[in-house]
Design goal:
The complex is a heterodimer of chains A (115) and B (110). Chain A has 115 residues and is mainly β. Chain A has no helices and eleven strands. In chain B, strands 2, 4, 5, 9, 10 and 11 form a six-stranded mixed sheet that branches. The chains are: A mainly beta (115), B mainly beta (110).
Chain lengths: 115, 110
Amino acid sequence: KAGVTQTPRYLIKTRGQQVTLSCSPISGHRSVSWYQQTPGQGLQFLFEYFSETQRNKGNFPGRFSGRQFSNSRSEMNVSTLELGDSALYLCASSGLDPNIAHGYTFGSGTRLTVV
Amino acid sequence: TQLLEQSPQFLSIQEGENLTVYCNSSSVFSSLQWYRQEPGEGPVLLVTVVTGGEVKKLKRLTFQFGDARKDSSLHITAAQPGDTGLYLCAGRDSSYKLIFGSGTRLLVRP
């Protein structure tokens, strides 16, 4: 079965612009999580959605937002981009409730560069 | 805030050597996971450990969850160049967020 698909793979944006990243989870998976990965901070949790509801949110400013659609596809949006938002944004999906111990399947990520 | 600390941060070894990577916390985790990430790709789940004292083996990789469920280790026997990558431990905190350790970057030289 197809894995987690993230689009686009690479993106270059200018400071002040906004960006929308997309994630299609594995078919049948209802849980989608987003992470920001940078060399200095590692993998930082952004948010987690389950059946269209945000179940958890990390410590990121309000410029970072997300949503999940009825088909489980998810998008995250970053407004008023800053240079420090340059990172690899990873999406992960799971077929189980986030409250149950299990592992995630990650996509290959979207590499965002803000200039 | 629950944190996961990994050590060492970097490890460069010769093919055939053994190594151990550690993942430690002052907090109790209900479960811990180990992932491996290669450049340009997302992390890939290797194992999930749930029970204190649990040991799981995956070919040449042995994972152990501490009795108190505050720490875990990954031991690789006879490392191969294909084991090169970033090894990450992850655990669910008290609010069920999956948080990651800072990672151990392993280089296995042929």
